[in-house]
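dumping this here before i forget
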Amino acid sequence: MFVHFPIFSRSTSSGDSEGMKLYLYPLTQKYGVDFVVSGHNHLQQHLIINKTEGQLAYVKQDYNLECMKVTHVTCPNGEKKLCWTRNVTCGLGYSNCTNRRPFEDFYDSYPYGHNLTYKKGEYLHQIVQGAGGGLLDPLCDSLSPMAEMIFAHCDYGFSEIYIDEERFSIKYIHANTSTVLFESTVLV
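structure:
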């Protein structure tokens, strides 16, 4: 399934989509969907839900929008600047990131190089790939109450998806180095 907004997310730009969790997620269970591929969030994430435990009851995310305020600074012209470091400023005498949480604290949550393998029907995989451009979204501390995150990376990158009769495989690739950061394969 391909959608624009992710159902589950830890991005500072949106978090979980409560309406999609309530109405679309049950349809993924009803029709045996194994993958939901989305963008919107400007980072890379891979979340899973164990399907063998049955459909999860809807749980609202306790999402703290304050995480956006501590990682960005809004300049007088309305431009939002990401606090890559504490030295980012809007200009002389204007807002700066001195008392903000710098982006590198949110950079990624999971180690690189993993290649996890699953069997078809075990998990619903939520794949978020919106790290191709625009202002990057750091991760929030808030977890999704319905999905477990197995990979997240907050830098520019892209995904390579391979599908044949035997498997579905996705590789998350760093844009500047072409390094495969994480790979997940579902055997059919």
